[in-house]
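Input record (Table S2, row 302):
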Amino acid sequence: MIARVAILTDDPGWHGARLREALANRGVSSEWVSLRQCRLELAMGAAGVVMPGFEELPDGVFVRGVPGGTLEQVVFYLNILHGLQKLGVCVYNDGRAIERSVDKGMTSFLLYCSGIPTPASWVLEEGEALQSLLGRELKDGQELVLKPLFGSQGKGLLRISDPSGLPAADHYNGVYYLQRFIDTGDSPHDWRVFVVGGRARVAMRRSGTGWISNRAQGGCCYPAVLDAELRELAERSAAILGLNYAGVDILRDRSGQAYVIEVNSIPAWKGLQAVSPIDVAAMLVDDFLDHCPSRGAIEAVG
Ligand SMILES: Nc1ncnc2c1ncn2[C@@H]1O[C@H](COP(=O)(O)OP(=O)(O)OP(=O)(O)O)[C@@H](O)[C@H]1O
Ligand SMILES: [Mg+2]
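Output record (adenosine-5'-triphosphate complex):
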């Protein structure tokens, strides 16, 4: 059994408390740690990664948050995760999988290349190709959605219906991520499917006051039937990105065609918990402990 676990989060809140409680119910002690407080220490005798509150590195790390910041900061936080894995600490979700999914461009690329239906998307800088794309796509009432490459919670999303509506590139750190707008009907909505241990477990329907359905943007959550199509798309998407658990966002257009728009490696589940009878934190902790045997157990087996 794991004796010591770090829950990586800047702001434990409701989710941090649920995880700690679920771990304690399984007899596992845990501490909340911010990635901002961790460091690489590469001097004689040091373990390589230093995590405050842990004299020895923990057996497992549950990643509940990767802080935003400059590119250097985000790379540094991801390197802490990679370093921990290299040192034999079980990191959940896997550090490389988190790295792939924090980047919307790479997520879309991997989904597209694996044949998952995902809206037509482009990642590019300013220039002629951008202008001709806008001219081509913004015809006949068709629109594009502009998203920050490293965004989350529906922040910074913009609907573009006219080339003049595109903000200057520096507002988006120099790179445009543009995606065809999918019309989901008169009452815009999306589906969030929660995958744990590679299996789709539960789904909800989200609907907001506008076209952005995230709960953080005022969207409401409703229970939803996890039908075969949602299940298959969500499970395949999580597997393509190498995620143990994931929140997969799916849209259906007016004709019913489904599109995977996003795969989250650190999904919140407060809204989902409110409309689902399943104890989500307990389910996550069970899967985490299955994946992360204690280092003592590994040594005993080895
Ligand atoms: N191409 C699109 N067409 C129509 N609506 C969209 C499209 N992309 C996003 N949306 C709406 O905006 C919401 C947020 O988009 P998305 O999931 O891509 O970003 P995010 O939620 O900010 O990122 P993350 O899911 O990583 O937290 C979606 O749930 C959906 O309601
Ligand atoms: Mg989303």
